[in-house]
Input
Amino acid sequence: MVKYVSVIAMKLPNIKILDEKHKILHTKSTEVSFPVDKKTQDLCYDMIKYLEMSQDEKIAEKYNLRAGMGLAFIQMGIPKRIFVIANEEDDGTFDEHIIINPKIISQSEELIYVGEGEGCLSVNREVEGIVPRCARITLEYYDFEGHKKTIRAREDLAVAFQHEIDHLNGILFVDRIDKKDPFKNKENMREL
Ligand code: NI
Output
């Protein structure tokens, strides 16, 4: 109850997410230099707050939001190689990531796909089909100060990272679905 009251009183960050009809979503974002300025850092925190609020049913209803767990700068029209993730854990807390200039340094051969289909806050329509993703990846990235970090991700988080890295390269998940055969090779992948 306490959480409900405090969360509902939170102000929704002023974030405008571009729809897929905006061509800029298909541009490749450029690398960020360090240290990252305060304005950019604050935007990252606002994006995380927005995602967390979007995953709260009551707030989502109040503000008419679609739930999202990841957001890239390009989705706000800023072509910088940064994305954030807020992944709700079973205990209701959030696993938060701010990822700058990422590079996949290793990936599993095993492929997975999201059974109910991937979603994207920039794609406001129903899309049929599956997107093949690596089940496990290792990512190199940087923090605000420019320190190099490494993270391993699997399952949902691995899919989210790959989806967001695609955004940095101007690719939407819908671009990865085979138009003629949206469920192509399904039998060779594991469903999430
Ligand atoms: Ni997306």
